[in-house]
Amino acid sequence: xxxxxxxxxxxxxxxxxxxxxxxxxxxxxxxxxxxxxxxxxxxxxxxxxxxxxxxxxxxxxxxxxxxxxxxxxxxxxxxxxxxxxxxxxxxxxxxxxxxxxxxxxxxxxxxxxxxxxxxxxxxxxxxxxxxxxxxxxxxxxxxxxxxxxxxxxxxxxxxxxxxxxxxxxxxxxxxxxxxxxxxxxxxxxxxxxxxxxxxxxxxxxxxxxxxxxxxxxxxxxxxxxxxxx
Amino acid sequence: xxxxxxxxxxxxxxxxxxxxxxxxxxxxxxxxxxxxxxxxxxxxxxxxxxxxxxxxxxxxxxxxxxxxxxxxxxxxxxxxxxxxxxxxxxxxxxxxxxxxxxxxxxxxxxxxxxxxxxxxxxxxxxxxxxxxxxxxxxxxxxxxxxxxxxxxxxxxxxxxxxxxxxxxxxxxxxxxxxxxxxxxxxxxxxxxxxxxxxxxxxxxxxxxxxxxxxxxxxxxxxxxxxxxxxxxxxxxxxxxxxxxxxxxxxxxxxxxxxxxxxxxxxxxxxxxxxxxxxxxxxxxxxxxxxxxxxxxxxxxxxxxxxxxxxxxxxxxxxxxxxxxxxxxxxxxxxxxxxxxxxxx
Lengths: 229, 344
Hints:
A: MetI-like fold; B: Rossmann fold; 2 domains
C-alpha cells in the first residue's frame, strides 16, 4: 500500500497522532521510573564497592568480589540478550512479559551496574584529604558518606546519571521492539513492519528531542550544584 | 599535657620495613606552641597523626592529659577527636559548602543543633577575620582566607589542642605571616596547645616556643627555640638554622671571597648576637676603644623570635694585628660569638 521512496518519510497523513502521544508517554514513563531505580541502586552498589575496596577483613573482601562480579557480568551482557535471558524472571516479578512494566527489570539490571561503576569512580576521585579532615573531627563512617562523599561528588553523580539515562532511552526503544511499548515499539511495528516510514521518522525525532531535554536538564543541574570553579 | 613514650611506627612495604617513627619521647606542656621541624619523610606527619588516632603506633604510648589515645576505639576515639582540631596544608575544605557551613561541619558531626552550630560558626568566622564572607564558597576565597576557614573549623568544638600539618606551606610569605599571627593570637586568647609541623624554620622562629628536630623518624634535637637557634648541635639542625639566619649564605661567601682578594690584609669575622645584645651599640663601642681599626660591614641581619632577637653580622677589620686581637677579645667579653672566617 505504500511506495518506499524518500517521499514516504513525509507522508504525515499516515501518522496516528493519538498513538504517538501515548507511545511518547510510555517511553517517558519507562525512562523516568528506571532512572530513579537505577540512581538509587547504582549509588548503593557504588558505595558498597567503594567501602569494601582494600579491606583487610576476608569477609568484606569476599563481599567486594561478589558485588564486583555481579556488576561486571551484567554490564557485559548485550541488552537485547539480557531481555530474553530475563524473560522467566520478568514473568515471575511483574506477572507479564508484554508492555512497559515488563521492560523494567531488564532495563534496571543492565543500567544499574553501569552506573554503579561511575559512582565508585566518582568517590575514588574525591580528594582523600577531605575525608581525612572529617575523620580527624570524629565523624562516623555513615556521617562521612552522608556529609562528605555524597555531596562532594554530586556533580559527577548527576552527570553520570545523565549519561546513564540517555543510554536508558536507547534501551527502551530496543525493549519496545520486542513488545515493551513506547516509541521504539511504534517505530518498529507501525513504522518498519507496516512500511510506514513517516511514523519511524516522527518517533525518531521525538526520541532525539527527549535525549536533548535530559542532557540539557542534566547539564543545568550540574552547573547549579558545582561550586568548585 | 601531651606525652609520647618510646613511640615507634613501622610500615611493611615491598621494599622492606620502613621505620617512620623511632623511639620518640616527647612532652608538650599545655598552652605551648610546639614546633616539629624536619624535611619531608622525616616522620613528623605520622607522629602528629598519632595524637588524634589517624595513625597508631606500632609500640609505645601516646597520652593526652593521662588518657592513652593508643587504646581508644569507636565512640571513645571519636569523642576524643572532637577535642583536637586539625588544620592542613591543602585546607581540605568541603567545596560544596559555604564558609559558614564549613565551620558548622564539625559541630554537626558532634551532634549540635543547627541553631547553636550556626551561632557558634558566626562567632568563629568573626574571630578569624572572615566577617562578611560567611556565604562565600571556598572557590571564591584566597589561600589565606581558606586557611582561616580551616582554623575556624578546627576551633569549632572548643578543642584543647590544635594540630597544624604544614598549614602555611602552600601560602605566600605575606599570607604565611598573617596566618601565623592568627595562630599566635588564638594561642594567647584561648590558651590552646598548638603542635605544628613544618619544614620551614621561619615558621618555628615566628611562633613556636619549643622545637623538636626530626630526621629519619627520630627526634635528634629538642628544646626551647632560642636555645636551639643559638647552639644547634646536630648537622640537620644547623642546616635548618643557617637556612633561616643567613638565607643568602652563598652570596655572603662570594662577597667574602671578593673582599679577601681585594683586601688581603683584612680579617673577616662573623659576629652572632643574641637577645638584648642585638639592641646595644656593641660594634661602635669596640671601634671607640680601638680607634685605629677600619671596619667594613659585609652583610648583616636580625631576626625576631618569640624569646628575643638573633643577629648575625659579617665584618672586615683592617689594622694592627694586636688591635684586632684586642677587639675580638672585647667582643667575646660581651658574649658576642665571633668566628674568624679568614685571617691573612
